[in-house]
Amino acid sequence: MTLFINARLIDPETLTDQIGWLRVAEGVIAETGTSTPPQADEQAREQAGEQAGEQAGDTVDCAGKCLAPGIVDLGVKVSEPGERNKESFATAGRAAAAGGVTTMITRPDTAAAIDTPEGLEFVQRRAQADAIVKVRHLSALTKARAGAEMVEIGFMLDAGAVAFTDCDHVVTNTKIFQRCMTYAKSLGALIIAHPQDPDLSKGACVTSGKFASLRGLPAVSPMAERMGFDRDMALIEMTGARYHADQITTARALPALERAKANGLPVTAGVSIHHLTLNEFDVGDYRTFFKVKPPLRSEEDRMAMVDAVASGLIDVICSMHTPQDEESKRLPFEEAAGGAVGLETLLPAAMRLYHAGGLTLPQLWRAMALNPAKLLGLDSGRLSVGAPADLVLFNPDAPFLLDRFKLKSKSKNTPFDGQRMEGKVLGTWVDGTQVFAA
Amino acid sequence: MTFRQKHLLGIEPLHPEEIRTVLDLAERYVDLNRAAEKHSDVLRGLTQINMFFENSTRTQASFELAGKRLGADVMNMSMQASSIKKGETLIDTALTLNAMHPDLLVVRHPHSGAVNLLAEKVNCAVLNAGDGKHEHPTQALLDALTIRRAKGRLHRLNIAICGDIAHSRVARSNLMLLGKMENRVRLVGPATLMPSGMEEFGCEVFDDMREGLKDVDVVMMLRLQRERMDGGFIPSEREYYHRWGLDAEKLAYAKPDAIVMHPGPMNRGVEIDGQIADDINRSVIQEQVEMGVAVRMAAMDLLARNLRAAHANPEVMV
Fold it and tell me: Taking 90 as the threshold, does the pLDDT of residue B313 lie above it?
């Protein structure tokens, strides 16, 4: 039993941010309130607990710092199986805990794709054994993510897959994609897709425009994202399958998303924290830690994405955690691997948006915890009574200089290296048990 | 005399005064190269390695000759045939070479930014001899010297860069250099070979060759880089020649004393009419080759001075 007092409670359901208290019992949120904390009751309960042989609870004085639901990070790559040298469930779990992420939703784009129930069982077992936070798994949508044959969607659901995705591979054959959707619809399965026209974006590593032309790098028009999204929306209209766009990163795609939602299509969308806090110019002198997929966009696009999260048009913010070792990044920009680690930097980077006035803390937690949990049918991501006590206590104002070698991830490829950040995690709890303390 | 660079990676970091310094020194090397005795000792005792990850005959020969005329020990490495094939990374290759203590490293690489990456890992001075579609600084400098000698100045000129802009590092370096020296630059070429956002660099973009060439002082043609194309930029070479190839009729739109330039190698009958290329009254293409050696001598001389200054006084970084 733990009682958190003097906490700034960030509640994404009611979109409130107020001082209060929260009591955890048996791993779930038992009570919350904004009046005086129930100390007398607490003592009485403790006595009752002691009588029953239970351990006495402790009180955490939050000293006015923020207490929010633990982050549910949709789309984390853990590199197991296949590339454990880049990240393991143990290191990813510790990184998540240090970053206030209490549930990692892992991607199936591992060196052998997670496309069979046996493969899923393997990662579940590894996660169970080594990760100190909760882990749920995504399944591939097609075998080997090759876009030719659908996986055993029924078996995968039974085995615990929370959604189906080929990650950054686009199922180019519309007939096959349509069948996947129709089959998924009949089972109520969620499809996560990467909206992108794969021919237009082939070989591109930056967004077209002045910067790309100056650097002489192969570039893709931002329109490729809208084209991919438009195609997918037509298929959703045909099949009625539940669809989540992994990352919407361009302003041009937003009206299409808005229209789809207004027409009642079962559609949601996400965006990575990098596309909310960085833009194309950050690549600077060919800095490969800023090579992500889709590539960083213009400042106008970035601002439009922040507004879309504020209005709720974009539902989910994720870290798109993609570990890459030094060797994969120490190459000419075109040849370097894409992706950035993000589990530990998601929260401090999100604080940039809060301090800049773009988003409130409850809005951020709606996108980082509540919405992804709802989308995947998880009961976490909220502060309401009865929800699991997955919590993060943080100081949104604490400044620090980010040193990538201090990250707990096995891979250190963060674009925020050497940057001034604000926002430190003070403690993380999973089912009421503390898994991280600063 | 001002030249504060450790490397010559591109035109972008250069100050106009530094560009003038290179050109002024190159003028002196033009005279040396025309003399009967073409030798100087300014690079004596220094080792120059030419590392070409991409095929080159002209540029490599030009750098080799420049180094030899200044007394450097010059070594050529054709990197396509060596360790890259065995899977060695660019960084490892750089570190291996660095351990041999070269002083000047001349690098050409097929990927944009690769030379910048390499320069971070070595102690010597690095000269970019062309990286992907990014920069080719010595080409822009030799073009500038050619223009300055032919026109008597390098400012307030109308200059058209024509053809395959998208795949051209020569176009990017030239655009930057000519802009820094306060010229009016036009880019002329098919829309499919025009990179996006070029108007934002302060130049005018033309699709029509005749319109683009109207009253210009300098016509700079580019090679159609068929080997870099992944298909479908232009319908055919004969249509390209018809619409964008430089012939007497199109050249007539330029000023009567306009000069014609080409970085070579030329595709005669694709981007330029053979007769125009050979017209000694208009074409300065052979002069460009001559200026190339002089400009490279000047650039290596200046970098070597900074290198020696850094050796003598390690506290002061140039």
Answer: no
